[in-house]
Design brief:
Elements (H helix, E strand, L loop, with lengths): L2 H6 L4 H8 L2 H11 L7 H19 L7 H14 L4 H8 L3 H14 L3 H8 L7 H11 L9 H5 L11 H20 L8 H17 L34
């Protein structure tokens, strides 16, 4: 089992909250580590995706993405992960009408995530990963973004296959972990999206700035931690175990 996979098997909400508190720091670290035209973009794009886009979607009578929003979402996805300029060009070729109609229908199909992703995949350059990002923006309680780093952090899901079947397996495991953490956390605010953010934070943080995670200790144990079942404040660099 890799170091990344150890986090997914952790059942201590305290540890997960400590990692979630570092999400913004890791995003900034990745932005600083980026080269070329991507430098400095990630922080602003991530704020837009995590805060501004969800607010815009919730303000509409019916949830849907505009063409400009889908293009910017793709830019966020490619800047945060593997940069593929061809996808950026392809997604721009979708018509304004098709983007709005397709995304509107997809949100109406929820909570059937598989059907929603199948609908979104009718758009050019939109596969399960990008489709999952669209759904998360409007329904983080239903879906999790299919980030490579998050998928690779879950036992049994490597190698990654960008198919609906593989995404369904991933979402099932992420939902199970969210449910388990909510059962032991009085705030009960764990969603599939938040689990995915934690997995991404842990994996990327270890790669580009491990000192950020220095105070968080992960190890496997057959017994639950004494801290499990309590709710902890997000504390950085606090030694916690699971």
């Amino acid at each position: 089992m890799t170091g990344h996979e150890i986090l997914f098997n952790c059942k201590n909400p305290t540890v997960w909250r400590s990692i979630f508190a570092l999400y913004g720091d890791v995003v900034e670290a990745k932005a600083m580590a980026s080269k070329g035209k991507k430098t400095g973009k990630l922080t602003a794009l991530d704020k837009w995706y995590q805060e501004e886009l969800p607010e815009a979607l919730c303000s509409r009578k019916e949830k849907f993405l505009t063409h400009a929003e889908l293009v910017q979402l793709m830019e966020w996805k490619l800047t945060r992960g593997k940069f593929r300029p061809t996808l950026q060009q392809m997604v721009m070729s979708n018509s304004r009408e098709s983007v709005e109609a397709c995304t509107r229908k997809a949100f109406k199909l929820l909570p059937d995530v598989s059907a929603a992703i199948a609908e979104l995949s009718k758009l050019k350059a939109v596969g399960p990963a990008t489709a999952s990002a669209v759904l998360v923006a409007g329904a983080p309680q239903e879906a999790a973004f299919m980030a490579d780093e998050a998928v690779e952090s879950i036992p049994g899901l490597v190698p990654i296959k960008y198919t609906l079947k593989h995404y369904t397996l991933y979402l099932h495991k992420v939902r199970d972990r969210a449910t388990q953490l909510n059962n032991h956390d009085s705030l009960k605010d764990w969603t599939p999206h938040r689990i995915e953010q934690c997995l991404w934070t842990w994996a990327v943080g270890q790669q580009i700035k491990p000192l950020l995670l220095k105070g968080i200790v992960l190890h496997q144990s057959k017994r639950l931690s004494k801290e499990e079942g309590t709710t902890a404040r997000p504390v950085k660099r606090q030694k916690t175990q699971c």
